[in-house]
Write a structure and sequence with these properties.
heterodimer; A: mainly alpha; Na+/H+ antiporter like fold; globular; B: 7 helices; 6 strands; binds flavin mononucleotide
Chain lengths: 627, 193
């Protein structure tokens, strides 16, 4: 079979992805690592199913990164981007500059010329947008401080590529094989600058005034695939335009995304492009895996491993210190720093550019490409390690933060856990004039509510001393609203033992947790989702045509029986068989009751006020007797 | 019809508010007929209390504002246990509060008209001496009459549809038409009770 046919290649890549990614996910390694490993396995050095032309495919697949940034831009309206300006310029700028310089010195230590060292420093200062964003969003970390800052740094790096490309030719020390292969280099500096601005402004203007009417027109044809085709066309056009003026296509796409973030077609664009983006990114990761030159690696494994370690350590150190300067909490800081500690896909581009311009010799580039690829492949592993081992340590460290002095006087109510749940309870009580002492364990959450002017105290509620300091001896009741069953149980037990007068109102996740808390001695337990789910169900009934009052009664009745059954079944908890049996019975009973109620009300209509078969009343007797 | 030929607005002297109270409107026949007859009469505001306050949490401010904006207040409901469905009682207890409907700074409803419009299960005969309901409707409605009076409102002769569950469709339609006429007269200020 012709192993070079497009279909066969596609077959191999898809097969690798379909097998590799689910396994990796199952093992908790994340999709990126799955793709990378699949790539290594089908690569030229193990199975040899994909050939040396894998770098060509990689360049094609890099388009996935462009799309990813376009999609990221779509989620980021201009004002949100504006808010990020400090992290982008400050954090991002300093990261690139400092990392470049340190790596440059490291390279100098290896005896390279300063021009080469500087080139290497700049190139390796960049991180991998694709790997970082994919891994972080898969873990749901993009909305955290760490995620946002990581994104800001990556964005700056994308911008930084422009001056790097401009600077590179000036660092040439070798004889150039094909000089000035890049067309735009012929332009004067100011012309180039002008051109760049012209392109950026036209992207903004086109996004604002041209794209919407065009998409409007296309959407009216009602052809979905044409809409998707035009979305693709849009991104490809931007890519070409940016390449033509020597700018990063990813940056241009991001910009276009931001401009379109406020357009009405935002969601359609997202939906249309998302699959392509994911597939291309997957392809990209596979090619990164496949391009790791294992032969070269085996020639000098220790050198390469050492360099990888050096690169990662330098990057992490710079990032940790910078993030600290920017007041990022240590827990977020470590994730942020570990996430960004690798070389990026831009390195591949810049290395080949540096080679063409005679800045770096081929043998050094070959080794560094392997180093970058390995560091990329290690990133998901690093993040997992960080989450598993490092964060708990720092979480522990955070525990050592001194508990706050509690000085809010005598309050009748203690609210343990001031998250979404505790906030609602406390606000309700406060609205009725009851003072509440608020305890919160999550420092980030604490600072957040403080910014809104609410005074919550820092401390671990499972600590008896803290409970005493919070006035548990004098308070009337404690609301346990923490999101952690173990802690809730400990607090319940502590309170029962040391403050027997204290009424315990506890939030529970589900039935099991509710029973456990009841057993531990909580006086009142509420499952956290019950109320809101019933309310939503009530509104659903209304939208199905119920009048509000009937929907309201149905919801009330459901709540009533559900809570009663919970109590009745509580005794059976533990005896699983019996429990399931009874629970099913109760559920059926509940349904029967609800239906019967409905039927009653239907029958109302027929003999709602039937006087004929009514027994003679005593009043009537009296009336008759009196007559 | 009297209004034909007259420019609109001139004849519409009064603004009419219908406070409608029915907990089981989805199964209603009588009140449905009445409601559909008055639904699109100009100058009439329809206020469906059970639909708006299914949990009995009444927006007092809104209700008082509505009262102030209208001249004739109609309370339309089925006759339940010789009175109104319970939400109307709750409404009275909360909305007709001290300082608004009576008391210091109260009596803001003074001079407005109150019409009770009810559908009744029993026959007209049953409501009276010898009937199994013993007392005439007018007597049973005294608490409403006295409430209106206490607030300085004029309690009009009630609109009563007897045997509400027995009426044929045409009888219902006739009754509804008559009810609509009553409402129009109230609006136009030529209602004779
Ligand atoms: C709870 C309840 C109480 C009732 N009480 C009385 C009553 O006291 N006297 C009477 O004549 N009819 C009584 N009825 C009959 C209603 O007045 C009658 O069903 C209603 O007016 C019909 O109107 P609808 O078709 O709009 O529901 C009662 C009905 C119900 C459901």
């Amino acid at each position: 079979m012709d192993t070079h046919s497009i279909l066969f290649q596609a077959f191999i890549f898809l097969l690798a992805a379909v097998i590799g990614v689910p396994i990796a996910k199952r093992l908790g390694l994340g999709s990126v690592l799955g793709y990378l490993l699949a790539g290594i396995i089908i690569g030229p050095f193990i199975l040899g199913l994909v050939g040396q032309d894998v770098t060509d495919i990689m360049h094609f697949a890099e388009f996935g990164v462009v799309m990813m940034l376009f999609l990221v831009g779509l989620e980021l309206e201009p004002h949100k981007l504006w808010k990020l300006r400090m992290p982008i310029l400050g954090l991002g700028g300093l990261q690139v500059i400092i990392t470049s310089i340190i790596i440059m010195f490291a390279a100098l230590a290896f005896g390279l010329k300063w021009q080469m060292a500087l080139a290497i420093g700049m190139i390796l200062a960049l991180s991998s947008t694709a790997i970082v964003l994919q891994t972080l969003s898969e873990k749901g970390l993009m909305r955290t401080d760490a995620g946002k800052s990581a994104f800001a740094v990556l964005l700056f790096q994308d911008i930084a590529v422009i001056p790097m490309l401009a600077l590179m030719p000036l660092l040439a020390t070798l004889t150039v094989t094909s000089p000035n292969s890049v067309g735009h280099a012929a332009l004067q500096g100011w012309q180039q600058t002008l051109l760049v601005f012209a392109v950026i402004i036209s992207i903004i203007l086109a996004g604002r005034y041209l794209v919407a009417p065009i998409f409007n027109w296309i959407a009216r044809t009602g052809l979905r695939e044409i809409f998707i085709a035009s979305s693709l066309l849009l991104v490809i056009s931007i890519t070409l335009a940016m390449q033509a003026v020597g700018l990063s296509p990813a940056l241009g796409a991001f910009l276009a995304g931001v401009v379109l973030a406020e357009s009405e077609y935002r969601h359609e664009l997202e939906v249309g492009l998302d699959t392509f983006k994911s597939l291309l990114l997957g392809l990209f990761f596979i090619t990164v895996g496949a391009s790791i030159d294992l032969a070269l690696f085996l020639q000098s494994p220790w050198l390469i491993l050492g360099l990888v370690a050096l690169l990662i350590v330098i990057k992490i150190l710079v990032l940790v210190l910078l993030a600290k300067q920017f007041k990022m909490p240590i827990i977020e800081n470590v994730i942020f720093s570990f996430a960004l500690a690798q070389g990026g896909e831009f390195a591949f581009v810049l290395f080949s550019f540096a080679s063409k311009n005679g800045v770096l010799p081929q043998d050094i580039i070959a080794i560094l490409v392997v180093v970058v690829a390995l560091s990329m492949a290690l990133t998901p592993v690093l993040i997992i390690l960080c989450e598993k081992y490092l964060q708990p340590i720092f979480a522990h460290k955070a525990e050592e933060r001194q508990f706050d002095e509690i000085d809010d006087g005598d309050t009748p109510v203690i609210v343990a856990g001031y998250g979404r749940f505790g906030q609602i309870v406390s606000r309700l009580l406060r609205s009725q004039g009851f003072q509440t002492t608020l305890l919160e364990y999550d420092a980030v959450q604490l600072d957040l509510v403080r910014r809104f002017g609410t005074k919550a105290f820092y401390g671990d509620v499972t600590n008896l001393e803290l409970l005493k300091a919070a006035g548990a001896a004098e308070a009337k009741l404690i609301v346990i609203a923490v999101d952690n069953q173990e802690k809730s149980l400990i607090v319940t037990e502590l309170c029962r033992k040391h403050f027997p007068h204290l009424k315990i109102y506890a939030r529970a996740k589900g039935r099991r947790e509710a029973y456990e808390l009841q057993k531990a001695g909580a006086h009142f337990v509420m499952r956290e989702t019950l109320g809101s789910a019933v309310l939503l169900g009530r509104d659903a009934l209304v939208s199905l045509g119920y009048r509000n009052y009937q929907a309201h009664r149905a919801a009330k009745m459901f709540l009533h029986y559900d809570m009663r059954h919970l109590d009745e079944l509580a005794e059976l908890w533990g005896d699983e068989k019996q429990y399931i049996l009874e629970a099913t019975e109760k559920a059926e009973l509940l349904e029967a009751v609800l239906k019967a109620d409905q039927k009653d009300r239907q029958e109302l209509e027929d003999h709602a006020w039937n006087a004929e078969d009514r027994p003679t009343s005593s009043t009537l007797d009296n009336v008759e007797k009196n007559q | 019809m009297a209004t034909i030929g007259l420019p609109k607005g001139i004849s519409m002297q009064n603004k009419v508010l219908v406070n409608f109270v029915h907990p089981l409107y989805e199964k209603s026949k009588a009140n449905k007929a009445l409601v559909s007859a008055i639904n699109d009469i100009e100058g009439v505001t329809f206020n469906d209390l059970y639909e708006r306050y299914p949990d009995f949490y009444i927006d007092i401010e809104r209700e008082q504002k509505l009262l102030l904006e209208h001249d004739v207040i109609v309370f339309q409901h089925p006759f339940y246990w010789y009175s109104s469905p319970s939400l109307l009682k709750e409404w009275q207890d909360l909305v007709l509060e001290n300082g608004f409907a009576y008391g210091d700074g109260g009596y803001q409803l003074q001079g407005k008209q109150w019409l009770t419009a009810i559908t009744v299960g029993g026959t007209e005969d049953s409501y009276g001496a010898g009937g199994y309901n013993q007392f005439p409707i007018e007597l049973l409605l005294k608490p409403f009459e006295q409430t209106a009076d206490f607030c300085g409102m004029k309690f009009l002769a009630p609109y009563v549809m007897y045997e509400a569950l027995m009426l044929s469709d045409t009888e219902l339609a006739d009754a509804a038409h008559q009810y609509a006429q009553t409402i129009r007269h109230l609006r136009d200020g030529d209602y004779k009770s």
